[in-house]
Description:
401 residues
Amino acid sequence: MNPIHTITLRDDSNTQMLYFTCSSLSADDRRIYLISDQGGFPNVYRHDLQTGREQILTSNTSGILQSYVYFNGTRNTGLGKASVCLDPVREIVYYIQDRDLCAVGSDGNIRVLNQVPADQMTAFTHVSGDGRYLCVPTTDARILDYDPDTEGYGLDQRPKYDIDSRVQQENLCSYLHVYDTQTGEETMCEPVPRCWITHVQFHPLDSGMILYNNEWPSFACGIRRINLFDGKTHRQLRTAEQGRSADDWVCHEMWSADGKVVIYHGAYANGPAFVGRVNVEQMTYREIPLPKEYDAYGHFTISHTGELVCDGYYKQPGDHPPQRDNSTDHGADPHQKNAEYISLVHPDWEKHALRWTPLCKHGTDWLGQDTHPHAIFNHGGDTIYFSSRRGKYVGVYSVSV
């Protein structure tokens, strides 16, 4: 397997990449953008991969904003760690500080574009490929109306109640807010009733189309999870036919570089894991089952050439992954979080076959969202970057393809 290179690892703090729905790398692959809690508070840093020089871009001194996956953060106060996304061409970082929707470039000048509503809970954001628009998903704040200390459980103090059931029973709503990145004007606020949206992604070539999810469905996950809004209508991108079932579990949808297909992964009801893709225009599907023993949770992300990288599932004969009591295992996902490998995956969609090339062991303990590797390709497609807690703290690493 290939050697691992350390990008940044602090002696007394945690550093992680941005969420995998956006790139963490500048378009020329010379700089990587990271979130680090060095100094006691999470902030965004720009790290030059050639010189090692770092620049702090944000000025947060208020902890972590409560949002999706950061359940025990503070309401309307702190850096929205889930909100940080990068425009890799113009190298502008967008993020939420308290309620302010902010933008900052390499000059370090922070612009406040707008404010998110005080009575709505935010999640992972996304900037359009042309840099003109920013999409901020929110949900009625009642969705996380609880005391994490007394009504939460596990590492992330997530709610004990079924969030999707609350959404359905109380008719809660999510919203697709779109803002002009130059003027800060809100150009769209599209309500999506009885839905919990936590991931959004503009079509790579058409900012009028937004891919979005329905998080943690309590029923019909196989068809409710992946959705598309084309500016006029909403449609579910996975249907219950030809072997697909509403009772399947699906997750982590992501556009291909040309915007023709959306890839995703999941598990069949009472069956094996799989990776799939849907042709958005033709609504045709290809799903490839994984070997039965590939039962350790991971993510698939796609390169500009269509190859995949995976931070889970793969096993070699004789492997005995560590067994942990991981609180984040107790959701709809049927797989344990104890995978060990970063693998290059070559799909043959027509033949329904995958060829796995293990590159390295990432070594993370999967204990908490920020330790998930969320492996991504660089823009050149020759290097993979990932986060990992290989010891006491989370650091960022790379491996050559």
